[in-house]
Every structure is written in structure tokens, then in C-alpha cells.
Design goal:
single chain, alpha+beta, four-stranded antiparallel β-sheet
Length: 554
């Protein structure tokens, strides 16, 4: 019976390859004909099923190659039409999501097989690892892919046969509590392999994900998780008790056996990644549990490990218990009508769910809180005053920003003003844009006051012989607006004015939460995601007065 299933899978795979070849051949020929350099192989069989590093077998083309001219690999990379390639990869991802929705697991394996051997997907994988923040961080081999020629050859080198991941480079980064978090860095080749297989796994993870999971998912953010928590707690009859859950060492303790058994991807590749080990101070150590923090596919793995927790919690209690679940990565909250429900019904279910996966709750950080006492989630403090729920930036977050700004100004006290203003604006705008969707006016005002005082001290030290009027005229009136710190910088071409942004000028705009069932890989939500991605106003409620807002709500 098992042999028969394998034979059916192989025949279905061959039919899929022939069908995709037939569908994409003409489009691909047109794309290659329009390119200035035609040295890219045009056979779709090459892009879908090529695994070995054999010489390229191409159809005859009217190109420079046919005339005997040599084409540099760098030019091949530069003429790639990324929009067209993303469209072709997306088509396969959409088909995978549809197969997951219909629970056609053999079909999923076939489509994943095709996608992970597609040259288009390999190009996208290389592009991702060479254009993100870690592109200049090498692995244990010290190799970086820099330049178009290296990127093209890297895409050609990605293959499954003979692939053996190298051990990870272990480093440590500081945490807020003073401890250090281990970070394992794969090599560029291993990162590209992870990015390639993530393209095939992401549609499965999105389709099977919990409705109220918001971390490391396309089109979702912390603002969506905060809005979901607001919806669960803001009504007069909402739950009044909250279980704050924190998983102890989530990435480092996930069971390898559970992942190999339950994550639907190439088991051979997955096993190799999990058992690659890591190198610390020149010594190689084995990895017996966990998935490395620093891998491209690790967030997807952690999400798939925790998916199903929402259903387990909802099935553990009656419907009228006002139980709501909100999760961002490994941080989650569960609301309940009473403390007893959370302690006796919900918490044991969560612990049992995590135990199967090799995880456990942190006893120090997992607490049950009354809503009027307040709790902190994703940098925001939730507290009910009477029947009104207020969400404000946490006190620790504000203090951390103030300390960071003060250190920044003191550290750059002697550098040119434009450089200092650019660094200040990056810090202030990033923090303010994160908190602009909650009750943050008071916090914004405090931050602006502190920035003014620090800048005033700095210019007084810089210009000890100048009067207050001179300082105000040259720094706080340089932009033509009052109460805005600015400097004029003269260059050979133009005079430029650099202004320190005030956080209170950004304004408060309420956020519109994403639909819980939205899936970026299903066609019915394509227009919805396009609108949220390209029209920022679709994520924000229109600016209106308190009277207008109450009238709309009524």
C-alpha cells in the first residue's frame, strides 16, 4: 500500500511538472526575448526540476551565446525581472495554500517538491539573504555573497543532493534584564536553503495558523496584536482577569522529535538543520533540542509549534467564560471571566499543550492579573479606569527611550549637527510611530520636553559666550517655525535645514486590525492585502473629534 502511494505521488509530480511547463513556457520566452542579455536558460524544466550541477541544456535561441560571444554572470543577475519571477513563485504558493485548505496532503508534497527545485525560487532565496540586514554577517566559513556574479553563481549552486549544512556560529547578544541571549548564525549557503524551503512552507503555516497569532506573519504586526487585545478587553462586560503567558526559552527547547513528525516539509533537510550543531570558541557542540535563533526559517518553525494553542484553550472552557487568546511570537495573553477559570481550567491545558512540544511556562513571568491593576503586553500598559480601557506606553519603555536619547546626545556632542539630528529623528520617529495608535499624548509630551532640555544643555556647552537670544535665533528659529530645534547646513549646491522631529506632532491615529481569517496566499484576500500594503490610510481610522467618534460608534 505504501509503495502504491509513492508511485501515485511520483506520477502526480510528473503531471504537475509537465502542466506548469506548458502554462509558463510562452510567458518565459517573451521575458527572455525582451531581456538585453539572453544567457539565462529558457527551459522551464531547468527552473522547476534541475537539481544537479550539470551543464546547462538550453533550446536554440537567437542570442549572443549562439554567435559564440561570452556573457558575464553578473549581467545575467542584473537583467532579472524580479516582478515576473515573484509572480511565478506566488502562483505555486497559492496552489499550496489551496491544497492545505482542501486537506490534500499528497498534493502539498508534490507542489513543495516543485517549488524547492524551481530556479525562480532559488533566485528569490539568494536575493533575500543578500539584501536583508544580515547580508554582511558571515557564518562559520566567513563567506559572503557580494556582487552580482557571486549571487548568480550562488543560485546555481543551491541543490538538495549532497547538501550538508555547516555548524552554526554562536554569539551572544544582551537582553533587557542583563542576561545574554544565544544567537546562532548559519552560513550564507544554509541561509539561502532555509529561505528556499520557507517559500514552500509559508503557505502551509499561514493556512494552518491560529486566528489571533500575529508574530512573524506576512501583513501582521504588533499593532494588530494590541488591537486584538483592545477588542477583547475594552467592552463594559469584557473579561476582567488576564493570564500573562511567557514560554521559558521557546526557541532553545523545542522538541526535535515533535518538529520532524509534525512539520510538513522535506524531513531529510529538516533533520540535517536541527542536528547541525554549533561552534563556540572553536569547539563544536551538538544540538539536541531547539531551533536556532538567527535562522531565516526559525520563526516559521516556532509559529507552527505553537499553532493550535488557541483552539486548545477555547475547547477547555464553556463559551460564556469570556476567554480570548492573543499571541505574538512566544508572548501571549488569555482573558477570562474569573481568576478561578484561568487557574483551574486554562493554565493546565496550556502546560499540557507545551509539554508535548518540549516547552514549559516561565514560573516567574507567567502571572494572572486583574485588569484594574494593569499589565504590560508588547510594550503597552493595559489598565481599566472605571469602565474605560486605557492603553498607554509602558513606563519602562519611556524610560528606556529617554536614556537612549540622552546617551545619544552626550555621545555626539562634538559631531556635526546634521549627523546628530538624523540619528535623533531615527530613534524618535521609530518609537513614536510604534506608540501612535494608543493613548500616548502625555508620553509624547514628556519625551519632547526631555529632548528640548538635553539639546538646550548641549548648545549652552557648545556656545558658552553666546546669549539665550542668540541660541534661540540660531537653533529654535532656523526652520521658520517656533519650538523646533533646527540647523542650517550649507553645501556647494544648496542650503539645507535639518529639523528635530517632535513626537507630539505625529498625532494619534487609531489602528484598524487585520481580519483574523485573512490569508495572503488565498486569492479571495489578494485585493484586501494589496489595499493594506499600498494604502496606509486603510490601516488607520479617519482623524475625527471625540464627538464625531462617539457619534460613529453609536
Amino acid at each position: 500500500m505504501e509503495g502504491q502511494n509513492k508511485e501515485v505521488g511520483r506520477s502526480e509530480c510528473r503531471r504537475e511538472i509537465r502542466r506548469i511547463e506548458h502554462e509558463t513556457w510562452l510567458d518565459h520566452e517573451n521575458w527572455m526575448a525582451s531581456a538585453t542579455v539572453n544567457s539565462v536558460p529558457t527551459s522551464n524544466r531547468y527552473f522547476i526540476a534541475r537539481e544537479l550541477g550539470d551543464p546547462l541544456k538550453m533550446r536554440k535561441q537567437k542570442t549572443a551565446i549562439r554567435a559564440g560571444a561570452l556573457i558575464d554572470d553578473a549581467k545575467k543577475w542584473k537583467v532579472i525581472d524580479w516582478k515576473w519571477i515573484r509572480r511565478q513563485v506566488r502562483r505555486l504558493q497559492v496552489r499550496i495554500a489551496k491544497a492545505v485548505k482542501d486537506k490534500r496532503w499528497n498534493k502539498i508534497k508534490v507542489l513543495q517538491y516543485i517549488l524547492t527545485r524551481s530556479f525562480y525560487a532559488k533566485l528569490l532565496a539568494v536575493k533575500r539573504v543578500t539584501s536583508n540586514k544580515g547580508k554582511k554577517t558571515p557564518g562559520i566559513d566567513g563567506v559572503l555573497w557580494q556582487g552580482a556574479r557571486a549571487k548568480w553563481r550562488a543560485a546555481l549552486s543551491l541543490r538538495r543532493r549532497g547538501y550538508k549544512p555547516q555548524p552554526l556560529k554562536r554569539i551572544y547578544i544582551p537582553k533587557k534584564n542583563g542576561k545574554k541571549r544565544p544567537l546562532s548564525i548559519p552560513t550564507m549557503s544554509d541561509r539561502a536553503q532555509q529561505a528556499l524551503h520557507k517559500l514552500a512552507l509559508a503557505p502551509v503555516a499561514e493556512t494552518l495558523a491560529d486566528r489571533n497569532s500575529y508574530g512573524f506573519r506576512e501583513g501582521r504586526s504588533c499593532a494588530d496584536a494590541i488591537a486584538a487585545a483592545f477588542n477583547a478587553l475594552s467592552k463594559p462586560n469584557s473579561a476582567t482577569w488576564v493570564l500573562e503567558g511567557d514560554i521559558k526559552g521557546c526557541f532553545d527547547n523545542i522538541s526535535h522529535e515533535w518538529m520532524i513528525k509534525n512539520i510538513p516539509m522535506d524531513k531529510v533537510i529538516l533533520t540535517k538543520w536541527l542536528r547541525a550543531g554549533y561552534v563556540e570558541k572553536g569547539i563544536t557542540y551538538p544540538s539536541r533540542k531547539g531551533t536556532p535563533q538567527g535562522g531565516i526559517i526559525s520563526p516559521t518553525f516556532s509559529n507552527m509549534v505553537l499553532d493550535g494553542l488557541e483552539d486548545a484553550v477555547n475547547n477547555a472552557v464553556p463559551r460564556r467564560s469570556r476567554v480570548n487568546f492573543v499571541r505574538y511570537a512566544d508572548d501571549f495573553i488569555i482573558t477570562g471571566k474569573s481568576k478561578q477559570i484561568l487557574e483551574e481550567n486554562v493554565k493546565p491545558v496550556v502546560e499540557e499543550f507545551l509539554k508535548e512540544r518540549g516547552l514549559e511556562l516561565s514560573p516567574e513571568k507567567t502571572i494572572i492579573t486583574y485588569i484594574k491593576n494593569g499589565f504590560t503586553f508588547l510594550g503597552q500598559t493595559f489598565r481599566k479606569h472605571g469602565r474605560k480601557l486605557h492603553i498607554t506606553p509602558s513606563t519602562k519603555g519611556v524610560l528606556a527611550l529617554v536614556q537612549k536619547v540622552g546617551t545619544l546626545i552626550r555621545k555626539h556632542v562634538s559631531v556635526p549637527m546634521p549627523i546628530l539630528i538624523k540619528k535623533l529623528n531615527q530613534t524618535l520617529l521609530g518609537w513614536a510611530n510604534y506608540h501612535r495608535h494608543v493613548v500616548a499624548s502625555e508620553a509624547f509630551s514628556r519625551v519632547d520636553t526631555y529632548v528640548f532640555e538635553e539639546l538646550w544643555r548641549m548648545v549652552r556647552r557648545r556656545h558658552q559666550n553666546k546669549s539665550k537670544g542668540w541660541l534661540i535665533k540660531n537653533y529654535w528659529m532656523a526652520s521658520g517655525k517656533k519650538h523646533r530645534f533646527a540647523v542650517r547646513h550649507r553645501t556647494t549646491k544648496e542650503n539645507k535645514v535639518y529639523v528635530v522631529q517632535r513626537t507630539s506632532a505625529i498625532g494619534i491615529r487609531r489602528y484598524v486590525k487585520i481580519k483574523a481569517l485573512a490569508n495572503p496566499y488565498l486569492p479571495e484576500y489578494a485585493a484586501y492585502y494589496w489595499q493594506r500594503r499600498n494604502k496606509k490610510e486603510s490601516k488607520l481610522l479617519p482623524a475625527m473629534s471625540a464627538r464625531e467618534y462617539r457619534a460613529m460608534a453609536a
